[in-house]
Amino acid sequence: MSTGFSLRAGAFTALTGRSAQDMLDRIERADIFNLMQEDLRDAFSKENTPKQWNLALEEALRRYIAKHDPPPPDPISVRFELAAFEDPTQSLADLAESQNISLRKLERVIKRDFGLTPRTVMRRARALDIAAQLCGVADKEEQDEMLLRYFDQSHMIKDFTSFFGVTPHKFRETPRPLITITLEQRQARRLEDLERLKPGENKPWR
Q: Got the DSSP string for 109-168?
């Protein structure tokens, strides 16, 4: 068994002062866990259930945030994440203009908080949505719309393969339980952020 939490775009930078770009393609022990260690000393024992582990971790994170009182994530990153959920084909220039910032500032903030360029984040969002469809953890009514985000099938296959290392066909053929769980969590959060699904409400793919 394992337990953990994920941070929204910009939250890691707000909590630690570090750029997400510094963490790209790396696994390391983050300072935040060292600072939460005392609160979690007895949480992960055999006597406690996985549900209790998660509740203890959530409470420890709440105490950490209350103690350090970090600034909220950059609103530019918050809006950009929502844009990637809404329509990852939209113009970056138009998105920057809607936020009254330059395209260069958008690129700088997104690279800091996502670890990737804005264009790559949008490409990845398209690929993740297709992967969720292939794993059966996405709203089927969106399938045609998601496919239309690509010029043609070869474009979709090339883009998908660049992120997952296999073609969509091979991806669908092989069971991928951990990736499927992650994709399902992302799709649920996406639909909640788009106000198409309430927290705790039954998912459209179930």
A: HHHHHHSS-HHHHHHHHHHHHHHHHHHT-S-GGGHHHHHTTSSSHHHHHHHHHHHHSS-H
Q: 74 — phi, psi (to 5°)?
A: -55, 125
Residue 149 tokens, joined: 């985000």
pLDDT for 146: 94
Query: How many C-alpha atoms does 172 have within 13 Å on its Cβ side?
Result: 12
Q: Name the pTM for this structure.
A: 0.88
Residues 8-57 have pLDDT tens digits of 889 989 988 889 888 888 887 766 666 677 777 777 778 888 888 888 88
Structure tokens at 94: 């138009």
Task: Please state, in angstroms and rounded to a whole number, the distance separating the CA atoms of residues 14 and 7.
Answer: 10
Dmax of the chain from CA atoms?
Answer: 54
How many angstroms from the chain centroid is the CA of residue 2? 19
The C-alpha atoms of residue 13 and residue 19 are separated, in whole angstroms, by 6
